[in-house]
Amino acid sequence: MSILTEITEADFNVTLDIVYATSANFTGQPVYARAACYLHPDAAAALRVAVDLAARQGLRLHVFDGFRPSEAQWLLWNHTPDPTFISDPRRGSPHSMGAAVDLTLADAATGARLDMGTGFDDLTPASHHGATTLSAEAQRNRFLLLGIMTAAGWDFYRNEWWHYQLFKARERYPVLSDGAAGTKMMAEPAS
After folding, report:
1. What would the pLDDT profile of 85-105 be if each residue is shown by its tens digit?
2. What are the binding positions for Zn(2+) in this chain (predicted)?
């Protein structure tokens, strides 16, 4: 049993699109053995607030990632050791604490994702909050996401429009491995 809260589409009224369980991520291969989303109970509570705020605007949260086991953080870091976009696992990622979520907004009626100017995990300056090279619509959509998430109690990471984390996560939550969290997201080691 996990010490984290599982985020499901039915229980949280979100769309799950866990990209690290597919090859459609910047590594080009699955990082997780199965698609699942977990958050620390504090983060799950803040996500519920964000879901409600988005729904009042006719929007739905589209989640790309939540808890990221420490083993997965090492895989990402070893692939692309760029601290501008990937947390150094020695420092600890808020994702590996269950205290961060990667997401975007979608129209609640159609499911169409709002234009954010870049895709998820676009590891370029165009992904920074406040990037002005984007269309006015994309900038407005980013500000809308930023407003919803900050009003719900989340802090943002300035280099990634999709990344939100609980305030002072590194001071409040421990880094967890897949085994310690009980999430069974990583492949079993070969014997």
Report:
1. 999 999 999 999 999 999 999
2. 95, 102, 163
Provide the annotated binding site for Zn(2+).
95, 102, 163
Is 160 an active-site residue?
A: yes
- Which residue in this structure is represented by tokens 């083993």? 71
- Marked catalytic residue, from 6, 71, 137, 160: 160
Distance from C-alpha of 46 to C-alpha of 99, rounded to nearest angstrom: 10
- Tell me the binding residues: 95, 102, 163
> How many whole angstroms separate alpha carbon 131 and alpha carbon 126?
6
* Number of domains into which the chain is organized: 1
pLDDT tens sequence across 137-151 = 999 999 999 999 999
Is 144 in a helix, a strand, or coil? helix
Domain membership of residue 106 (yes or no) is yes
On whether residue 119 sits in a domain, the answer given is yes
